[in-house]
Design brief:
A motif (RadA KNRFG motif) lies at residues 257-261. Helix content is 25%, strand content 25%. The protein is α/β, with parallel strands linked by helices. It has 3 domains: 6-37; 69-279, P-loop containing nucleotide triphosphate hydrolases (Rossmann fold, 3-Layer(aba) Sandwich); 285-456, 2-Layer Sandwich (Ribosomal Protein S5, domain 2), CATH 3.30.230.10.
């Protein structure tokens, strides 16, 4: 048997190095390498084709009962999950400190327990009495949720193995958080890469064998990614990100990975005194309630999965004295796409932003990633530059090409119907989109220059 060697493991990405160094070669993180004992290395080669246990193979059309979904009792949470929690699945939810992860999961645990399911809530960061105090403040003190405060994975699995009725495993197991768990099989401190990987592996194996829906809370790093090894996100079935500013009231639950549903659905919540409330109509959050038109403000029907969300895009241009360097500031949109759109407006439409500072903001802290917002952003920029307000009852969507052509986007009828439902009357869209069923007055544009000429009264 060869002598075991020491290795140095990165606490951010899980990369290994034979010696310590200040910067990780894989992810570029500084001072993230920690010494860990490597597994025992055997000199003899093993024949893995012999001595194993024969597996039972099935086919895709086998008549075997499929795992069922359990509704969480919170419609926005179910929407992000794709319909509810799947029995035996592992879900990882991450977010900034204080964003509301524990509050959401405590409310979910209480709703499912009140529905007759067996639920166990294990906290590694708070005492059981502290969790009970928070549940009482949220009005959940009477929910039959089983509580415990522990960090040992062995103790947790020994306890929850018979926590349900008739000694069965619970229907839902919440671990808050995975970074506080430790396994006695690994000789390292809790929170390290090896401990997080080993603890998650044991908990996920228990969930798969027992049919328990497992929900893990994960910490995040300063750049917003889930802390610990990247392999943790590969091990679980669903990865959810709880987004939002602590100073703002609203939160967005977004699916980053989902083996049992789509990754384009979101759930919207509002943080109030009684905890998290669902927001069934998110468009009301991101639209400004104003009685008169304002230059530089347009409305864009964004699409999150199957849900249209109307958001307001605000633009401001400030003319500078000659010689000053203009500034470009963007909040909620891609700064590179703004630079491209400004170049198209200057080159194809004859507008000049060279001596103007440009500020672009998506209201409500919303973030837009789809190119369908190009026309709405261009309309806001033209309105701000010309100081001509856009009508309050108008929406805009369409992709702008480098040639100035306005291209069609997906799910246009769905966007138009949502705008009609919220009281909008006119839509600026690509030329080949028909809106006979929506009831809106549609103005189609083949090129961005057509819209600019119409606004400025040219030609």
């Amino acid at each position: 048997m060869a002598k075991a060697k020491k290795t140095f493991t990165c606490q951010q990405c899980g990369g290994t190095s034979p010696r310590w160094q200040g910067q990780c070669d894989d992810c570029g993180g500084w001072n993230t390498l920690v010494e860990e004992a490597a597994p025992t290395v055997f000199a003899a080669r093993h024949d893995l084709q012999k001595g194993g246990r024969a597996l039972m193979l099935t086919t895709l059309d086998s008549e075997i009962a499929l795992p069922e979904r359990a509704a969480t009792g919170i419609a926005e949470f179910d929407r992000a999950l794709g319909g509810g929690l799947v029995a035996g699945s592992a879900t990882l939810i991450g977010g900034d400190p204080g964003i509301g992860k524990s509050t959401l999961l405590l409310q979910t645990a209480a709703q499912m327990a009140r529905a007759g399911l067996s639920v166990a809530y294990i906290s590694g960061e708070e005492a059981a009495d502290q969790v009970r105090l928070r549940a009482r403040r949220l009005g959940l003190g009477d929910a039959p949720v089983l509580l415990a405060s522990a960090t040992s994975v062995r103790d947790i699995l020994t306890t929850v193995g018979g926590a349900g009725p008739d000694g069965a495993a619970p229907d839902l197991l919440v671990i808050d958080s995975i970074q506080t768990m430790h396994s006695d099989l690994i000789d390292s401190a809790p929170g390290t890469v090896s401990q997080v990987r080993a603890s998650a592996q044991e908990l996920i194996r228990f969930a798969k064998e027992s049919g328990t829906a497992l929900v893990l809370v994960g910490h995040v790093t300063k750049d917003g990614s889930i802390a610990g090894p990247r392999v943790l996100e590969h091990m679980v079935d669903t990865v959810l990100a709880f987004e939002g500013e602590r100073s703002h009231q609203y939160r967005i639950l977004r699916a980053l990975k989902n083996r049992f549903g789509g990754t384009d659905e979101i759930g919207v919540f509002a943080m109030v005194e009684q905890g998290l409330e669902q927001v069934p109509n998110p468009s009301a959050l991101f639209l400004t309630d104003r009685a008169e038109s304002v230059a530089g403000a347009t409305v864009f029907p964004a699409l999150e999965g199957t849900r249209p969300v109307l958001v307001e895009i605000q633009a401001l241009t400030v003319r500078l004295q000659s010689g000053a360097t203009p500034r470009r500031a963007v909040v909620g949109w891609d700064s590179g796409r703004l630079a491209m759109l400004l170049a198209v407006l200057e080159s194809r439409c004859g507008l000049s932003f060279a001596n103007c500072e440009v500020y672009l903001n998506v209201s409500g802290g919303y973030k837009i990633a789809e190119p369908a917002a190009d026309l709405a952003v261009a309309a806001a920029l033209v309105s701000a530059l010309a100081e001509k307000p856009v009508p309050t009852g108008a929406i805009f969507f369409g992709e702008v090409a480098l040639s100035g052509e306005i291209r069609p986007v997906s799910h246009a009828p769905l966007r138009l119907r949502e705008a009609k439902k919220l009281g909008f009357e006119m839509a600026g869209v690509p030329a080949n989109i028909s809106a006979e069923e929506s009831g809106l007055k549609v103005q189609g544009y083949r090129a961005l220059s057509q819209y600019v000429d119409r606004v400025l009264g040219r030609g």
